[in-house]
Amino acid sequence: MTFVQLIDCKTSRFDEMNRLMDTWVEQTKGKRTASHSIIGKDRSDDSHFIEIVEFPSYEDAMRNSNLPETDRVFREMVALCDEMPTFTDLEIVRDEQLYKDTCRGFFETIAVKGDLPPLDGFLAENYHDHDPANDPDNIGMDAMRREIEMWRGGFDFEFTIDDQLAEGDRVCNRWTWNATHSGEFMGIPASNKQVTMTGTTIHRCREDGKIVEGWWQYDRLGLMGQLEALEM
């Protein structure tokens, strides 16, 4: 689960503090576990600064804290502060940008050529998939892999994400699917036809960004028409 640490300090020697941070980054290259950091200045107090440091997990943050370079820099930072800095440790319980990135990565990954890569970086093990074409729903990683492999066996395809909207733990993905009918699909022999389909998928994500549930709506009737598989 993503972990964030807020470092709140007051200093009249920010330029020196900034140089110290640059030195620390250089000295810990290849060992530092922080994934992102920003520093903000209080608009009402030029001596008040807050650094926001993001880590992939609490454990990664602790490994970073235990580096000898971190201990040395901390002591030098305290010497530059007007008063003792304070630290606030935060477990992230909602990150809409993380959820959007996970969903986009999922669509990109299931469309890659060759063997289907592992999906455990995107889907929870107990993932629940709602697709109006499937009864019952696909539940679990293995069931979802079989569903994806069925589509991959019939088509070479790619997704274009036309829109992404995130609110709370849900991401709405509006997409366009372009494909070549390169293999048998639902009993229809390969035709090498170029086909396209539009649809929307709503994903529900948990705190670590993994997708736990999905709801699909797409123009399957239009796809079958393009494959000339509809009887009048």
TrEMBL record:
Pfam families for the chain: SnoaL (PF07366)
GO BP annotations of the record are: polyketide metabolic process
SUPFAM superfamilies, alphabetically? NTF2-like (SSF54427)
Q: Which domain of life is it from?
A: Bacteria
Q: What is this protein called?
A: Ester cyclase
The uppermost taxa in this organism's lineage are: Bacteria, Bacillati, Actinomycetota, Actinomycetes, Kitasatosporales
